[in-house]
Amino acid sequence: MRFWHKILLSVLVLFIAALDVSVIMVMKKSWQLNMDSETKRAASEQLLIANNIYENLDSILARGITLTPVLLLSVAESYGEHYRTQGIGLELRENGRLIYPNTGGKDGMQDEHTIRLSMPLPAPYQHMELAYKRDISGLYAQQQELNRFFVMINWIVGPVLALLLYLLIRQLTKPLKQLSETTKTIAEGNYSNRVELHSKDEFGELALNFNRMASVVEQRMTDLSDMAEDKQRMVDNLAHELRTPLTSMQGFAEFLTSANIGQEEQIKAGRYIWSETIRLKNLAFKLLDLSVLRHQPLVQSEVDVSGLFEAVVQTEQQKLTENGILLQIDSSIPTVWGDADLLASFLVNLIENAIHASKPGCQIRLLAYNQNGEAVLEVRDSGSGMTAEQSKRAFEPFYRADPARSRTYGNAGLGLSLCRQIAEAHQARVELQSVLGEGTSIRIFLQLHNNCPPTP
């Protein structure tokens, strides 16, 4: 049974039961009041008749006439006939003997619908008893008519009330139906669906909180989906990266051990195995760096920009010299907040990418400056640059804008991915701007030393 069915039946049963009990109690009270009124009226009339008979008997005695049974019957008949037309029956007894009526007590009235009262006449006639009977069949008929009317009202009000309650409860429980339908669609995988309810009652609060929950769930599912795609892409790329050098190394190893080759060919095969080993080593180190960034909390401190740049230059000086690249340094801020080793790794990766993208004689600029209250570290080259699609995917693991050039230098395509992880660990943002044939600029936006307190 559905929730609104339960509410409808419960409210209908309770309402009809309360209505019936209330009406029955009202009718019972009304019947009691009517009976009390009729009883009082009958007692008043009986007293009036008894006084009238008393006065008549006194008048007869005053004239010196003896009260015989025939005379008493005559007096009683005069009153009996008069009140019979008003639905009132009288009986007169003397010492228990019936004087009137002389029909054996049959006055044509049914005792079940009458009020019967008895009282003695005033002294000196207290040996006589006057019985009063009043017909109240009309009151019974009125009560029966009310009962029939009540039954008819029940038959009419019941269905009408059920219809009105149905419409009201369906309207009141409509938000529950919307919520149920929305939860069903979300359970089926449509996390973008929301409850369209703008009332200010409890249902409105429930809908608002449900929509907030759905938004959080949608965001979580989106994040999980993106993470799953990233992990799958990383696994696919890693498998691809490992397959090619391992296959080549296996072939050259078999060539060295099974073929009768000269020294020059042995050196060539050995150099290829060595270059592929270096590339696999770089791949392993980059993956290790990425894993450390994901699981190790970052403790930031004040980093001297001059010292940071000097360490980067010492690391990259040999490669710069071998490739004929000039590195220009320009810094206008003294310090930043961050991790010195990670920031150095960030800049080293960018400079190495810039070296690989630049021709001999080109210039790479290493900059540090203040922009809108933020410290900016930038590496800018005038190399080959990238297209808009390549720029969009540059930070993906294992992505290489120029695979042939990257393999030549032993790159695994993880340098910019590591840079992005370093920026996220610093809660900083990274911007990449590149124009094909003109060069690339990558910037990280950090907090200045005087704007960010040390991390406890």
UniProtKB/TrEMBL annotation:
Q: Where in the cell is it found?
A: Cell membrane
- Matches recorded under SMART domains: HAMP, HATPase_c, HisKA
* Catalytic reaction equation(s): ATP + protein L-histidine = ADP + protein N-phospho-L-histidine
Specify whether Transmembrane helix is a keyword of the entry.
yes
Its keywords, alphabetically, are:
ATP-binding, Cell membrane, Kinase, Membrane, Nucleotide-binding, Phosphoprotein, Transferase, Transmembrane, Transmembrane helix, Two-component regulatory system
PROSITE patterns on file: HAMP, HIS_KIN
Name under which the protein is recorded: histidine kinase
Species per Swiss-Prot/TrEMBL record: Paenibacillus borealis
Upper classification of the source organism reads: Bacteria, Bacillati, Bacillota, Bacilli, Bacillales
